[in-house]
Amino acid sequence: MIITLILFGVVILSMVVQSRVTGTFRKYSQVPDRSGLTGAEVARRILDENGLSDVNIEHSPGGFLSDHYDPRSRVLRLSREVYQGSNIAALGVAAHECGHAIQHGEHYGAFKLRQALAPTAGIGSQAGMLLFIVGLIMSWPPLTYAGIGLYALIVIFQLITLPVELNASSRALSILESGGYMDWEEAGGAKKVLSAAAMTYLMSALVGILSLLRLISLANNRR
Ligand SMILES: [Zn+2]
Question: For position 223, what pLDDT does the model report?
Answer without folding.
Answer: 61
